[in-house]
UniProtKB/TrEMBL annotation:
Record has Metal-binding as a keyword: yes
One of the GO BP terms on file: terpenoid biosynthetic process
PANTHER family: FARNESYL DIPHOSPHATE SYNTHASE
EC number assigned by the record: 2.5.1.1
Keyword check for Transmembrane helix: no
InterPro entries in UniProt: Isoprenoid_synthase_dom_sf, Polyprenyl_synt, Polyprenyl_synt_CS, Prenyl_diphosphate_synthase
GO MF terms held by the record: dimethylallyltranstransferase activity; metal ion binding
CDD domains linked: Trans_IPPS_HT
GO cellular component terms attached to this protein's record: cytoplasm
Cofactor(s) annotated in UniProt: Mg(2+)
UniProt family annotation: Belongs to the FPP/GGPP synthase family.
Protein's UniProt name: Farnesyl diphosphate synthase
Amino acid sequence: MNKVNLSFSKWISDNLESINDNLSNILTNCNVESSTLQKAMQYSVLSGGKRIRALLVYASFIAANGCIAIDYETSFSVDNAAIAIELIHSYSLIHDDLPSMDNDCMRRGKPSTHVMFGEAIAILAGDSLQSLAFELLAGISISHEIKLNLIKNLALSAGYLGMTGGQAIDLTNIGNNLSYDELKNMHSMKTGAIIACSIKFGYILANSNQFIQCMLDKFAYYLGLIFQIVDDILDETGSDKQLGKTSGKDSKYNKPTYASMFGVIESRKMLDNLRNKAINIIRPIGLYNKRLLEMLDLIIYRDY
């Protein structure tokens, strides 16, 4: 997890293998009475995914922890925190795809969960993944103070002050002209909050000082905006096959986006500006900001 001397591709592949194995084990071994519900949970989580949010937990932990040796319990705690973030993300995708929300029949290049299992089971699968995320955090063998901090931050990030609140603003402003500040606020909640939580998880588990936390929080804010701008550009320029979901839906439904407000070219210029700000804000961390900077470019230059 914390070996900065590995190549980025090797670091990614090693952690992806661990993340996917952990997700598979947890979803296989949880005692779900309904086999249909369990299959829906497994389908939604294990049908691919970049695992960016989980990887950010690891990258943030490295930046905040530095060269300090870690024991098994700390490593296990970071693993579970990363898995909890992925479960929350998967739950949000299930609900986003529902006919009452974004109404998308394809996710990660496959039929959405509600298409495969019906709306009712899809909703329950999302609900179950959300509660499982908190169950994992509650079971981590760390101090009660740190554990409560993790749980509180995930609740705030996933709830009405974060992801679901941002989704509500998005759904109630289809066809409306938002100001730039309103657009930033909406996406800092809808998209940025869980990304910021990933970064917080890393430095909370590293028990870092306030100076490091402040830098990483600012980095996370820029990263959340960057992630959304890239998403908006890809929705305008990508294909269904490339994205693994229906492209062009934002413009079709006249949803407020960076691409619709500024155009693709100006949005790309915004990315360059935000990238420089993100790099500069964590420059004082030195060598151990390496993984975060690599994740930054992975997010910016991704094609799906």
